[in-house]
Amino acid sequence: MKHTMEIKHRYTGAVLWTGKVEAPQDTSQSRLLGLAVLVALKAKADLSGAYLSGANLSGAHLRDAYLSGANLSGANLSGANLSGAYLRDADLSGAYLRDADLSGAYLRDADFGGLKLIARASRADYEFFMWSSALGGHIIRAGCRTFTLIEFRRHVAAEYPGSDKAEETLAILDYLELRLNKFLERMA
Q1: Dihedrals phi, psi of 26, to nearest 5 degrees
Q2: What distance in Å separates the CA atoms of residue 97 and residue 15, rounded to the nearest whole number?
Q3: SS3 of residue 74 by DSSP
Q4: Mean pLDDT, range 100-125, rounded to an integer
Q5: What single-letter DSSP state applies at residue 138?
Q6: C-alpha to C-alpha distances, 103 to 12, 56, 57, 182, 187, nearest whole angstrom
Q7: What is the distance between the alpha carbons of residues 106 and 167, in angstroms, rounded to a whole number?
Q8: Is 176 helix (H, G, I), strand (E, B) or coil?
Q9: How far is Cα 31 from Cα 22, in angstroms, rounded to an integer?
Q10: In a 10 Å sphere around its CB, with 0-12 CB exposed, 13-18 middle and 19+ buried, how is residue 173 labelled?
Q11: Residue 124 — very low, low, confident or very high, per pLDDT cuts 50/70/90?
Q12: Are 176 and 148 contacting, i.e. CB atoms less than 8 angstroms apart?
């Protein structure tokens, strides 16, 4: 069945894209919105500032998508390929990002629900993200691991001491610590 869908701007309500998506009659609105996003992006639609809250984009191929300022709050982005996506000022608060690929994504000023991205770095097998919490804490997320800076250093010492992997990871942690200190200086 063909469903007529509209994607609107999150602030103005202006229609950014209108089109049809093919899906069974009983398809949920969140899945229909997710399908509409894929069709719109394939058609090269500009979805800057789009209201996509709650969209089901699980497993979607969104590589290099331009979604600056989009509201993706509560969206299901699990397993989505967002590598190289432009997500500056996007609202990702409450978005489900398990197994999402954010490598190379531009995340400056993106809202992760009280978390602010301070820095990121890559190792051959992981991308490292350092976040500042609205509550004042700082965390590093790499793959399935979430640690403070001190906890991550302890993890490296315990899991792969003296290895090339340890040396590379410690260099990344030094870089993240440098960026954290610069961030804290600006906030003071």
Answers
A1: -90, 15
A2: 27
A3: coil
A4: 85
A5: E
A6: 31, 20, 17, 23, 27
A7: 27
A8: helix
A9: 11
A10: buried
A11: confident
A12: no
CB-based burial of residue 24 (10 Å sphere; 0-12 exposed, 13-18 middle, 19+ buried)?
exposed
Structure confidence by residue, pLDDT tens digits, 29-79: 999 999 999 999 999 999 999 999 999 999 999 999 999 999 999 999 999
Token couple for 137:
């804490």
Identity of the residue numbered 7: I
37-44 long-range CB contacts below 8 Å, 24 or more apart? Answer: 37/7, 37/62, 40/7, 40/16, 41/65, 43/17, 43/19
Q: Which residues lie below 8 Å from residue 145, measured CB to CB, with a gap of 6+?
A: 152, 155
Q: How far apart are CA 97 and CA 94, in angstroms?
A: 9
* Cα(110)–Cα(54) distance, integer angstroms: 17
Q: Which two structure tokens, joined as six digits, stand for 162?
A: 């003296």
Token pair 């390929």: residue: 81
> Could you tell me the two tokens for 163?
């290895």
What are the structure tokens assigned to 155, written together? 């993890």
